[in-house]
Write a structure and sequence with these properties.
The chain has two domains: about 110 residues, Alpha-Beta Horseshoe (Leucine-rich repeat, LRR (right-handed beta-alpha superhelix)), CATH 3.80.10; about 70 residues, no CATH class. Helices cover about 20% and strands about 15% of the residues. It is built from six helices and nine strands; from the N terminus they run E-H-E-E-E-E-H-H-H-E-E-E-E-H-H. Strands 1-2-3-4-5 form a five-stranded parallel sheet, with no helix packed on it. Strands 6-7 form a two-stranded antiparallel sheet. A two-stranded antiparallel sheet has the order 8-9. A hairpin with a 3-residue loop joins strand 8 and strand 9. It is elongated. The protein starts with a strand and ends with a helix. It comes from Dryobates pubescens. Keywords: Leucine-rich repeat, Repeat.
Length: about 230
């Protein structure tokens, strides 16, 4: 099958995808179906080159979509997306990305939430940040496994870790030299959400959001995403 145009309800979508898993689909049109979520089964279509998901109610992109290594065109316009997962950067053959008509980063700053860490997480953070030595025989198996799940804070000035409690923030990343994409990343605390200088800049330099009005910066970045 070279291409397929589907107009089905979301209840039937997962069943339909199961039927097509063994076909070499190259073009799949799922636009205008009131879909609210993308079935992860799409990742099992290795020959898919053109995927149209426009004019739906999609709020997030599953990371599994990054497994579509043959994907050249991805149409996501007119949905409810507020961010894109970082995994989308793995779509190295993507030539066309349509994002117009999505909220993207309009209100993400006001919607940021932070759940206070549990006592378990606070203890785990202390062990990791202070390099407290321990052996598997010193702790129950579930705690050893928990400590192995520590994620490093991406803020280079922090050096902290987090487990379950983290701060969500949008980071703009250049994609293929064509797009300026808002990708979700996670920080260990609200204090890490302030913009920091890149490695190529001096520690005293300020980011553009420090020196310019936040609203105008967000609007300009939004324009770059939508025009891409």
């Amino acid at each position: 099958i070279g291409g397929m145009v589907l107009h089905e309800t979301e209840d039937d979508l997962h069943e339909i995808m199961q039927c097509f898993l063994f076909f070499s689909l190259e073009f799949l049109y799922l636009g205008g179906n009131f879909i609210t979520s993308i079935p992860p089964e799409l990742a099992n279509l290795p020959s898919l080159s053109y995927l149209v998901l426009c004019d739906n109610k999609i709020q997030s992109i599953p990371p599994q979509l990054a497994q579509l290594h043959s994907l050249r065109s991805l149409s996501l316009h007119n949905n409810l997306l507020t961010y894109l997962p970082r995994e989308i950067l793995n779509l190295v053959h993507l030539e066309e990305l349509s994002l117009r008509g999505n909220p993207l980063v309009v209100r993400f700053v006001r919607d940021l939430t932070y759940n206070p860490p549990s006592l378990l997480e606070l203890a785990g953070r202390t062990i990791k940040t202070r390099n407290v030595a321990y052996a598997p025989s010193d702790l129950p198996e579930n705690l050893v496994r928990y400590l192995s799940l520590a994620s490093n804070c991406p803020n280079p000035k922090c050096g902290g870790v987090y487990f379950d409690s983290c701060v969500r923030q949008i980071k703009f990343v250049d994609f293929c030299g064509k797009y300026r994409l808002p990708l979700m990343h996670y920080l260990c605390s609200p204090e890490c959400s302030s913009p920091c200088s890149s490695a190529s800049q001096s520690s005293t330099s300020q980011s553009e959001s420090d020196s310019e009005d936040e609203a105008s910066v967000a609007a300009r970045r939004m324009q770059k995403v939508l025009l891409g």
